[in-house]
Amino acid sequence: MEHAPEWWYVVSGIFFVLGTLCFLVLIALLIKLMAAVNSLNAQIRLLSAKVEKVSEKVEGLVTEVHKVTTKVGGEASGVATNVNSLVSAFTGKAEAASMVLFGLTLLRGFLANRKSARRN
Questions:
Q1: Helix, strand, coil proportions of the chain in percent (round to 5)?
Q2: Predicted TM-score (pTM) above 0.70
Q3: What is the pLDDT of residue 15?
Q4: Exposure on the CB side of residue 44, measured as CA atoms within 13 A
Q5: How many CB atoms sit inside 10 A of residue 80's CB?
Q6: pLDDT at 96
Q7: pLDDT tens track for 106-118
């Protein structure tokens, strides 16, 4: 039975060591990524609470504006139009924020699934 040349063992050893190092670096990067996602998750919760407070204030403002426009009638239609455009602008921003939150929630779930799959 013939043996492989010595250089083959050296090259194989080098590739094994490099592959192991790359694997360890990937594990370290995954741990850092998970820490970053957890940090973002906390920030997202704070942002969600702030957005919720702002939306409650906007809803109250819309209710008050509706009362004013009902009392004033035709004269307040210009004010209602301005408020409507502000609410529309806010709604667009809130939709964008909800899309970002949804994407981050999906990313968090994906990472959690990967983490639990690796444990198994």
A1: 95, 0, 5
A2: no
A3: 96
A4: 18
A5: 16
A6: 76
A7: 888 888 887 777 7
* Burial degree of 2 (CB within 10 A; 0-12, 13-18, 19+): exposed
Residue 50, both tokens: 């702030």
pLDDT top residue among 75 and 33:
33
| E runs forming strands in 1-120 | none
Alpha-carbon distance 11 to 64, whole Å?
A: 77
**Contact call for residues 1 and 78 (beta carbons, < 8 A):** no
- Percentage of the chain modeled with pLDDT above 90: 26
Q: Which residue has the tokens 């799959």?
A: 117
Helix 6-72 and helix 77-119: axis angle, to 10°?
150
Q: How far is CA 30 from CA 16, 44, 80, 102, in A?
A: 21, 20, 51, 21
d(CA 42, CA 49): 11
